[in-house]
Design a protein that fits this description.
Elements (H helix, E strand, L loop, with lengths): L3 E5 L6 H9 L16 E6 L4 H6 L7 E2 L2 E6 L14 H9 L3 E8 L13 H32 L3 H18 L11 H7 L10 E7 L9 H12 L3 E5 L1 H8 L3 H11 L5 H12 L2 E7 L4 E7 L4 H8 L1 H6 E8 H7 L2 H6 L4 E3 L9 E7 L3
Parallel strand pairs: 1-4, 1-5, 3-9, 5-6, 6-7
Antiparallel strand pairs: 2-4, 8-9, 10-11, 10-12
Helix pairs in contact: 1-8, 4-5
């Protein structure tokens, strides 16, 4: 499953630094607004210690983590929805993302140019207003598009027009679409429009190194705003994360101990992004490879098999399933079977996070 997270924010809030930390490359930091004019894209591995845990009990040639596509979208600004600051081009990149990581500047750095004082609340409102205005234009255009068919009595067009008009009313009030409850058929009608304010969003407070606990007033403002928007939040120091991921494991361990950091923020950020998208991980394990696979919560065995190969979903017969915890408890698949913990599941089985599965599929 190809999952894309777009990093958004106003200019010079630390998006490229965070992207560099994701990709473990030295940051190419721009100190002036709009110095970056192209979206950067990278596929990053999802850190998962469970792969190493499985390897302790099942010998294999290689470990293959799940992957996530990260898009560093150049800074949006006031007027982006009208094309200011190359806004239309940047908004197109936002529409392609499955979820958004909204980076908010909570740090002081006179070398990184900014007009006025650091203002997390104002920055978040500016960016969100631009997304609202862009979505409003999209929805209004589609209300007109389906209007003619709706007037002719086309039932699907009548339904879509009602949904689009509901969305238009929400956006006209300056509200984000994700703050309103939508029924599954309504979401299905809105999905082809690639609306930005309905996408899951995680707010990322980019703090000073002196505020690693996220206890500053600025970081609290971000967390409070995220809560009001029905979203999650996380705080991190982008500069520090970028430095740490580019160190050797030995040096990193020393610095983390000195700073009192048990875990880098990036693994936490990726886990939050998975939660945001309603994703989970299952594993396949054998002598060739142990691999992590990404599926949505609620997906059944056939859907999971189809992630491995599209033909497997149709040919799914059954799956032998156990959990990573079972492997830790019993130390081998043979012992898991002997203790009756190896389950045989049919087509209706709903996969769980940490499942290890062997699929039996019919071949042509």
């Amino acid at each position: 499953m190809g999952v894309a997270c777009g990093i958004v924010g106003l200019p010079n809030v630390g998006k490229s630094t965070l992207f560099s930390a994701f990709t473990a490359t030295p940051a190419d930091r721009a100190i002036y607004p709009f110095s970056t004019t192209e979206a950067n894209v990278a596929v990053v591995n999802v850190p998962d210690e469970r792969l190493r845990t499985i390897e302790q009990f099942i010998a294999t040639e290689r470990l293959v983590p799940a992957a996530m596509r990260v898009v560093d979208i150049p800074g949006l600004a006031a007027g982006a929805s009208k094309g200011e600051g190359m806004g239309n081009k940047f908004l197109g990149s936002v529409k392609e993302a499955d979820a958004l990581l909204h980076v908010v500047r909570c740090f002081d750095n006179p070398q990184v140019v900014r007009d006025g004082a650091v203002d997390p609340k104002g920055d978040m409102e500016v960016l969100e207003l631009e997304l609202v205005m862009a979505d409003l234009e999209t929805v209004a255009r589609n209300v007109e598009r389906v209007g003619k068919k709706a007037r002719a009595g086309d039932k699907q067009a009548v339904f879509e027009k009602e949904v689009f008009e509901k969305a238009k009313a929400v956006l006209s009030e300056g509200k984000l679409l994700r703050t309103v409850e939508w029924k599954p058929p309504e979401i299905a009608a809105l999905r082809p429009l690639f609306l930005m304010t309905i996408k899951p969003m995680l707010y990322v407070a980019n703090v000073d190194q002196e505020d690693l606990a996220g206890s500053s007033e600025r970081a609290k403002i971000v967390a409070q705003h995220a809560q009001e928007m029905g979203s999650g939040s996380i705080h991190l120091c982008g500069d520090l994360e970028c430095e740490l991921v580019n160190m050797s494991p030995e040096d990193r361990a020393v610095f983390q101990k000195e700073l009192g950091i048990e875990e880098l923020a990036l693994p936490r950020l990726i886990r939050k992004a998975f939660e945001l998208l309603g994703l989970q991980t299952f594993f396949t394990a054998g002598p060739k490879e142990i691999r992590a696979w990404t599926i949505r919560k609620g997906d059944t065995g056939p859907v999971a098999a189809g992630v491995i190969h599209t033909d497997f979903e149709k040919g799914y017969i059954r799956a032998e399933v156990y959990s990573v915890d079972d492997l830790v408890a019993y130390a081998s698949e043979a012992a898991i079977k002997a203790h009756g913990k190896m389950r045989v599941e049919g087509r209706d089985y709903v996969m769980h996070d940490s499942d290890v599965a062997h699929f039996l599929v019919a071949t042509k």
